[in-house]
Amino acid sequence: MQQSFIPKVTLPLDALLAQRQSTSPISDATSGNGPWPGPHRGRKHGQGLDFEELRQYVPGDDTRHIDWKVTARRNATYTRLYREEKERLLTVALDFRSPMFTGSETLSAVTAGLLAAKIAWQAADLSNRCNLVIQTDHKLHTIAPATGTNSALSACKLIADTFNYAIKNRNPSNLTDMEPLLKQLLGRGRFTGSVVVISAGDELGGGFDQLMPVLSSSAAVAWVLIEDPMEWQTMPNGRYGYRHALSGDLSGDSSRDNSKQHSNEFVRINADFAAQLKSLLEEAKKTLIDRVQNAGASTVSIRHGTTDVMRALYQWQILA
User: Residue 219 domain-assigned?
Assistant: First the structure.
């Protein structure tokens, strides 16, 4: 008897808040990249408490930092340099367009939303200032950069609210590309910081190859590729049913008449067909990864789990 499987098609706020329990501390400190004062060492000298070096005075040095005791001993003017303290700034860019609301086991949007919440909680634990931008079929949803627990709570609420909005207002027949999201990130300038894009990479758009290189030249960009198990696993032989959403409702509201909104289709899979399908999907994925990497972004796949994703973000100093 074949077991029934209920796909994960909801993203409740409780599930996002629970991602706080899965964060882990990081010991390696890196430079701050934001415009605000903060606890992380900046990339340049300036006002701060973190002593960097003692050297002879050169024109332009802050005279307030002259070390008069060393100057008297060495009969030459010496100044103390301090490392400017800055906050780490992170922007999470989340894709909630129609293609993300598909999946063989779990909706890609659910996987992406949970990961975004996990990153927001980790940023809060690390005292990073976090900004969230979510793209749906119709518009962008954002919150202002903030730090601490309240920042993560606001991010979780925006993810949950936007998920519910996106799932009820899907427009797969008129899919927008990612150009509005990229323009939003570029428009924030120094208030963008490091960037994590969480998306399956559908419909990047013609402007992607011009906009993404500009963004990646001014910020560290990591692209987390959301994949479905069907994209890397060979499908067993059998007859598969699938639903083609015309304007559909995935909210689970059984009171609504969806008979005119969806058409049910079936396809029979044998070993040869499954092998060809897997090969085509792997080729398409490689093309996508090459395109993203050629635009200057680092890529990591969700297929091996969130632990590998978080490890890569630390390795690339996106999170620190």
Answer: yes
In this predicted model, what pLDDT tens digit does every residue of 7-65 receive, in sequence order? 588 999 999 999 998 776 554 445 444 443 444 444 444 444 566 788 898 887 888 88
Query: In the chain, pLDDT over 70 holds for what percent of residues?
Result: 81
Q: Is residue 26 part of a domain?
A: no
Average model confidence (pLDDT) across the chain = 83
> Within 13 Å, how many C-alpha atoms sit on residue 266's CB side?
3
Q: Which of 109, 111, 118 is nearest to 156 (CA)?
A: 118
Q: Could you tell me the residue range of the domain that residue 173 belongs to?
A: 88-247+260-315
**Same structural domain for residues 140 and 281?**
yes
Q: In the listed set 86, 111, 145, which residue is the last one of a domain according to the structure?
A: 86
Token pair for 128 = 């990073």
Same domain, 92 and 81: no
109 and 150 inside one domain: yes
Question: Of residues 218 and 158, which shows the higher confidence score?
Answer: 158
* Whether the model pTM is above 0.85: no
For 7, 12, 101, the CA distances from 250, given in Å and listed in that order, are 11, 14, 8
Give the model's confidence band at 252: pLDDT under 50 very low, under 70 low, under 90 confident, else very high: very low
The CATH number assigned to the domain holding 93 equals: 3.40.50.410
Residue 258 has pLDDT above 50, yes or no: no
User: C-alpha angle 255/258/262, rounded to 5°?
Assistant: 160
171 and 108 in a single domain? The answer is: yes
Overall domain count for the chain: 2
Domain identity same for 179 and 102 = yes
- My answer on whether 66 and 108 are in the same domain is no
